[in-house]
Write the structure tokens for this entry.
Amino acid sequence: MPDNLNTRLCDAVDAAFDAQVEFLLDLTAHPSTRGNERSAQDFMAQELTSRGFELDRWQIDVSEIRHLPGFSPVMAPYEDAVNVVGAHRSETKTGKSLILNGHIDVVPPGPLDMWEYPPFEPRVDDGWLYGRGGGDMKAGLASNLFALDALAACDLAPAADVFFQSVVEEECTGNGALACLARGYTADAALIPEPFSENLVTAQLGVIWFQVHLKGRPTHVAYAGSGSNAIEAAVPLIQALHEMEHRWNDEGRRPPDYAQMEHALNLNVGKIQGGDWTSSVPAWCVFDVRMGLFPGQSLKAAKIEIEQVILDAARENEFLQNSLPEIVYHGFEAEGYALSQDSSKKAALAIDTLDQAHRTATGEELARQAITATTDARFFGLYADTPALVYGPRAEAIHGFNERVELESMRRITKATALFIADWCGVEPRNGATERVAASS
Amino acid sequence: MPDNLNTRLCDAVDAAFDAQVEFLLDLTAHPSTRGNERSAQDFMAQELTSRGFELDRWQIDVSEIRHLPGFSPVMAPYEDAVNVVGAHRSETKTGKSLILNGHIDVVPPGPLDMWEYPPFEPRVDDGWLYGRGGGDMKAGLASNLFALDALAACDLAPAADVFFQSVVEEECTGNGALACLARGYTADAALIPEPFSENLVTAQLGVIWFQVHLKGRPTHVAYAGSGSNAIEAAVPLIQALHEMEHRWNDEGRRPPDYAQMEHALNLNVGKIQGGDWTSSVPAWCVFDVRMGLFPGQSLKAAKIEIEQVILDAARENEFLQNSLPEIVYHGFEAEGYALSQDSSKKAALAIDTLDQAHRTATGEELARQAITATTDARFFGLYADTPALVYGPRAEAIHGFNERVELESMRRITKATALFIADWCGVEPRNGATERVAASS
């Protein structure tokens, strides 16, 4: 790729950067928590349509993905689970095709009084954009889109098909990305700008979600001895799960990407609800757990062990032994994925191409990172033979209060992405550009 | 009181007993949980009006009771906090006046799937009436009302003022009974048919409610180590509160009525809520606690000790020490009350009168019981110099699933109540009865 083009693409990103920040402010203002993604997806669809992409917008049909590997159980209604894909169809198809993926869903903001500013009234301060989802991962959607804009600004288009995906459900199941696969969107590589500080993610964990439902006989608290407290009965179960967590992190069990991490697998009790009256001994309690898994660790075996741990602990509890807990899988059943283990030429080439784009855009080496979370990358890597490059801007407090993303980092990622697209896909004249050039000459 | 009248009153209760059960079925069908008492109070008002009682129906005005002893903090809106009183004004006023008190509010039913039949579709089976609130304490409201009906059926009325009270807020603050006092309803004795198995309650505990609010920094679970889990931070605090509970139950601290009870004071974690996303480290958690107090135990000292215990435990916790818990008093600040300690002649006479009524109605001695709960009796006994007799039918699973009340027990209580009224208040011809007798002779 001529240096001249690199420079033109980076200049184009700079020229549009104010507009990109405006776009990110607009997008982050849509409170696209689970079940509320529609307005954000409408916004994305409008942006894609106005740029001339071929638009595909559909509600996920669970019956079409239920049987596929990587499917996670669905607990919530899917009326609002709408994916948006904008397709660029190359006229020459001389290069390698690409999926630019990002998720539109954001996690709940938590108590609003713990935010310095309202989570869905994003603002820029001292080089950072604040707001729920600004980092995770609307800045990534912005960098994907404005990287394509940079090519267009140079009157170029990718010389291969490119599918811009704005998916739902990344934060709880991954079924949005899975539905894109099921709909036939495949390519030679995928790029997912999740906010991991401009590092290339070489491995990600699997994640499993489960709920533990405890039930028992309630009673007036005057007779507390004859009832059993379902809230307090949760404590020994959580303790037993933490002991399992420590076993799973044993040095001997760690795969190469995580060999140096003392505690990559985190067990999180993320939510609890129990009882409904202060003076009634609570008869039920539900707590929600997230547990990490190493790449290569069997989901099925993990579930068996989790169930065993919970039931064993319950059997030692006087109350629970007569009313064993129910375990409900209510989200992620996600395997781990390691790009580092993909020995294909395609993967090597994709990484090399990104390496070079990053170096050109930033002047620095592309650092590698094994992350302790999951991303939608697993669908491309594990189930579609597509190397998935997770590479996005620097953000802080994702899933926390005052989440923020560094704007200069988003600029660098946008430039690197534009260079990557131009190199991986090649370029052709933008549709209509040749004619315009001909007409003006 | 002539035996003849006793027999006639008991016969009148029997004659109306099917109607009384129908009444209880109707009343129990009103789901009068906190904030939803209106339809049940409308029903009570209608029943009182149709019987010719002078009706008083008013919404509690917090500003009128806030300054009074026995007031408990109000957390919920009071739009639906409506008391109903039906007054009988005696023409002769030759006897002792009486308050017949009962509460209309019921505690939440909990998960419906744990009920054999829906909690607000009451039914009779094998001598028991099932339904939320049937025992606690709509059967008591029924026995109060149908005891008065028995007098009327004998063309008699109490020869003293009688105030039939259907109050709200018994299950969380007692502010309903307090509002009746503030409105000027006083009498020489009060009878409250709470469901304690036909025993006379000689002492009741104090109760304090508090919420513990925990807050912290949330984060993506991938970085669980750098955030702090507010749900799990609750565990050592609950542990410390249980240690306090054990100290408070020490033998040396027990007053006479509770000397033989190993564990009269129960600490109950009745409700918990924390977090909102399985894969976010929860940044907040709130748990609700009910703790018992002995009669004579200072509420103020109890609060100081509770706060000390929580804060001391929090200071030992790495996360909480930087974000100390907030303690909110959200309901009961109720002192204990012991009728057994009321040495007045009035109290002795009221107990004797009930003793005799119970013996006549049931053929058995009136048993005594110190209970491990609170009732509205404290307002009459502690703040209005009025002996309060808590004496009601046998019920099971109050605050539990499949709550039920024994109908024959309600019948006995109704008879004993009718005899008690006739003896305590004396009788006079029913308003209009003399004229009717004159007209027909």
